[in-house]
């Protein structure tokens, strides 16, 4: 029995040596930032402030891909899917666009304070949620951002 424990300890010690980190001069170099998939995708994305422009119609925005903020980071703005198939986006200023809301095909509205507390947004939300002919219902299509 004693031999088994010693052999087990020796094998364990040998395996532990195999998992030590490689010397700094032999470690693999990380990929260059410009080679990452996220940065390549970000280059093709619209700027949030150009998608959500006050008093201009919102169209063609894909919340699954996102848009870029002022600092170039990808921003995901959650959409509320309306009963008629359009989308409603509540937008926070942290995205680089002015705080407000926009429904697909309608003008973007700027609000003061929180979007969800704005009476205009509440009305737009209620209209968005109205049941469409045929009983279709609305559901969020992405997490709010």
Descriptive report:
The chain has helices at about 1-20, 35-45, 50, 120-130; strands at about 65-70, 75, 80, 85-90, 100-105, 110. By secondary structure, the protein is an alpha+beta fold. The chain has a domain at about 45-145. A four-stranded antiparallel beta sheet has the order 3-4-5-6, covered by helices on one side. It has a two-stranded antiparallel ribbon with strand order 1-2. The chain is globular. The termini are far apart. Keywords: Signal.
Task: Present the secondary structure layout.
Blueprint: H1 2-18, H2 37-43, H3 48-51, E1 67-68, E2 74-75, E3 80-81, E4 87-91, E5 100-103, E6 109-110, H4 119-129
Antiparallel strand pairs: 1-2, 3-4, 4-5, 5-6
- Mean pLDDT figure: 75
Q: Structural class, from secondary structure content?
A: alpha+beta
* Alpha carbon gap, first and last residue: 61 Å
Task: Return the string of H and E elements.
Answer: HHHEEEEEEH
The 3D shape can be described as globular
SS strand fraction: 5-15%
Helix coverage percent: 25-40%
How large, in whole angstroms, is the Cα Rg? 26 Å
Strand order of the largest sheet: 3-4-5-6
Task: Give the strand tally.
Answer: 6
Q: How many individual helices? A: 4
The major beta sheet can be summarized as: 4 strands, antiparallel
Identify low-pLDDT runs.
Answer: 1-42, 136-145
Keywords: Signal
Protein name: Lipoprotein
Signal peptide: 1-24
List keywords for this structure.
two-stranded antiparallel ribbon, 145 residues, Lipoprotein, alpha+beta, 4-stranded antiparallel β-sheet, disordered N terminus
């Amino acid at each position: 029995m004693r031999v088994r424990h010693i052999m087990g300890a020796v094998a364990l010690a040998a395996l532990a040596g195999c998992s030590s980190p490689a010397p700094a001069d032999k470690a693999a170099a990380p990929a260059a930032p410009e080679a990452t998939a996220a940065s390549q995708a970000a280059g093709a994305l619209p700027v949030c402030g150009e998608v959500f422009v006050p008093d201009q119609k919102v169209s063609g925005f894909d919340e699954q891909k996102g848009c870029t903020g002022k600092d170039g980071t990808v921003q995901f703005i959650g959409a509320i899917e309306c009963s008629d198939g359009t989308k409603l986006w509540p937008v926070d200023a942290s995205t680089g666009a002015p705080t407000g809301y926009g429904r697909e095909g309608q003008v973007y509205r700027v609000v003061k304070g929180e979007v969800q507390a704005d009476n205009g947004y509440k009305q737009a939300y209620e209209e968005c949620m109205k049941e469409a002919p045929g009983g279709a219902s609305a559901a969020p299509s992405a997490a709010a951002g």
